[in-house]
Design goal:
GO molecular function: 2 iron, 2 sulfur cluster binding; dioxygenase activity; metal ion binding; monooxygenase activity; oxidoreductase activity, acting on paired donors, with incorporation or reduction of molecular oxygen
Order of helices and strands: EEEEEEEEEH
Oligomer: single chain
Strand order of the largest sheet: 1-9-8-4-3-2
Structural class: mainly beta
CATH superfamily: Rieske [2Fe-2S] iron-sulphur domain
Protein name: Bifunctional 3-phenylpropionate/cinnamic acid dioxygenase ferredoxin subunit
Pfam families: Rieske
Largest sheet: 6 strands, antiparallel
InterPro entries: Rieske_2Fe-2S (IPR017941), Rieske_2Fe-2S_sf (IPR036922)
Number of domains: 1
Keywords: 2Fe-2S, Dioxygenase, Iron, Iron-sulfur, Metal-binding, Oxidoreductase
CATH class: Mainly Beta
CATH topology: Rieske Iron-sulfur Protein
Strand content: 35-45%
Helix content: under 10%
Distance between the termini: 18 Å
Radius of gyration: 13 Å
């Protein structure tokens, strides 16, 4: 479990990049928190720098879009999903649970 930030520091519509290996992006999509691998599966771009619309994030490089709930691409040029990770909040601190640690890689 990795502490990410205070909940108040991740307002709705924003994302934060966690410098793990590989990096992970944590999103606040209208009050729901999601975490996915931060690197687009199409090319090397940070999804935390993309555009968030509902539960979808659009890659800033070639506009591939990913569903934050599943990690699956919703349009080309991305064809491969990104991993999803569990996010919890404890004492107003956002925590990231790496999928590899829990054996739940998506």
């Amino acid at each position: 479990m990795i502490p990410v930030c205070r909940l108040e520091d991740l307002p709705a519509g924003e994302a934060v990049r966690v410098e793990t290996s590989p990096p992970i992006a944590v999103f606040n999509a209208d009050g729901e928190l999601y975490a996915i691998d931060d690197t687009c599966s199409h090319q090397d771009a940070s999804l935390s720098e993309g555009w968030l619309e509902g539960c979808l994030v659009e890659c800033p490089l070639h506009a591939a879009s990913f569903d934050l709930r599943t990690g699956r691409p919703t349009c080309l040029p991305a064809r491969r999903p990104v991993r999803t990770h569990r996010v919890t909040v404890e004492d107003d601190v956002v925590h990231l649970h790496l999928a590899a640690e829990e054996g739940t890689a998506a």
